[in-house]
Amino acid sequence: MAAMSNMKNLKVVKIQPILWNSAKSRFMSSKSSTLEGSTTRLASIVMSAIVLSGTRLDKFIFTRPYESGNKPSATVGCHETVFHMPPHHRALFKDLKEIDLVAAHPSMLYHQMLDTFFAFTSGPRESLTSLSIRKDAPTIDDLVLDALGTVVFPRLISFNLSVALIRYGTPSTLEKFFAKHGQLQYVQLTYLDVGATAWRSILGGLEANCRELMALRLGWLRQDNQQVAFGDS
């Protein structure tokens, strides 16, 4: 950890999440959030090193091994406890330009996770240009978007939400988010189930509000327990 204090030019940290089934792993991996080989434990060590060294990053990223053949559900997420820290430690992350999180099934109560997630992601709200939130299980993610819905990221141009079950809210939480971020240029929505909310409404809101959109990736979407007509595109 002390060695990181000498890396004055370090601006990007990437963490390789553990996979649920990894026969080729060089390290002992674990699904438990507390054991040495878990994604949460690895992330906790890295976060501690960042805080102790006073390093200020531009990008904090969990890499995406599933892009080379594994499904996103194969990735073991990081529990939100890693991001629970005092304000003076969170201040080190206030200049982040890119956040890519792979989150585990919530280990806290609803309001506790909401507070933790909001505190970490809202810190760099003035500088953030890219935000990606992925889950390791299709848990209800209205709480994540509810947290995001309380803050505006004025420079955000790229947004990704993957592996989520969104059931509540009229208009939907996604529509509210897009209405506040008309400057978005790149949006990716994959492995999402919006319950009773119609995808036609969500995409209509995206079209109406995000006039600067340059790229839209949609894949494996569902509503009312039915797969939407289009697949990965």
Features:
eight-stranded mixed beta sheet; 6 helices; globular; alpha/beta
DSSP helix fraction: 10-25%
**CATH fold node name:** Leucine-rich repeat, LRR (right-handed beta-alpha superhelix)
User: What is the string of helix and strand elements?
Assistant: EHEHEHEHEHEHEE
As for the number of domains, it is 1
Major β-sheet annotation = 8 strands, mixed
Mean pLDDT: 76
From the alpha carbons, calculate the radius of gyration and give it in angstroms. Answer: 18 Å
Q: Outline the low-pLDDT stretches.
A: 22-31, 66-70
- Find the count of extended strands (DSSP E, 2+ residues): 8
Structural class: alpha/beta
**How far apart are the termini?**
42 Å
The CATH architecture assignment turns out to be Alpha-Beta Horseshoe
Percent of residues in β-strands: 15-25%
| Anisotropy-based shape | globular
- Within CATH, the superfamily carries the name Ribonuclease Inhibitor
Q: What is the CATH class? A: Alpha Beta
Please give the order of strands in the largest beta sheet.
Answer: 1-2-3-4-5-6-7-8
